[in-house]
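Thread: "does anyone have the structure for this chain?"

Original post by V.I.:
We have the sequence but no experimental structure in hand. Need at least a predicted one for the grant figures.
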Amino acid sequence: MRTGEKIRAFYKALFDAYGPQGWWPAETPFEVVVGAILTQNTAWKNVERAIENLKREGVLSAAALHALDTERLGETIRPAGYYRIKAGRLKNFIAVLVDGFGGDLDRLFALPTGPLRETVLGVSGIGPETADSIVLYAAGRPVFVVDAYTARILHRHGMVDSDATYEDLQSLMQGSLPDDVGMLKEYHALLVEVGKRHCKKRAPECCGCPLRQYLEEGQPVTGGL
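Reply from O.Q.:
Generated one for you, tokens below.
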């Protein structure tokens, strides 16, 4: 089976096994943006607590966050961890949004996909995974979000080398899939789910994994990434 065919087969197998994931959980696109920044290096349950704090304080908006003191913002999002760093990154994003787009997320999201992605990537502290999460889940553009689970799964199935870059992985995935925003959202979330359940960092637990059938004969299932 060719790589592109296998990538498409992975999606069907995962969807059949787990069903729709309905990710990203948020009430508004702006909440998605905030969540994408806060979820770096922490569990989602911690992000939920931080976002609830922002809602309770009435500051989950561009205008309110722009006016909020960075130190107070940090204390409000403390449950998300690295709260001082993340407060700075949130303020950096808000500054770009306010200075360049009048604080209007719709104006930012009106940019074509390439310039939109470059604008978000230009925010200090925001890397490709966070930027693409914003572009896909908040702006609804067809980009594939690559994370550690994606890299690990593709590597263990012999589809990429261990030194494949973010751009290598994204190009492979997007080149094998249709420009279907709904599918790209589901696929990313499904890879996270199978990664948590089976393709764990230290060693995979292949028993019961929906993707086990796609391991080639003699292919090792341990080591790397």
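V.I.: this helps a lot. The chain has twelve helices and no strands.
O.Q.: and The domain at 3-22+145-214 is CATH 1.10.1670.10 (Endonuclease Iii, domain 2).
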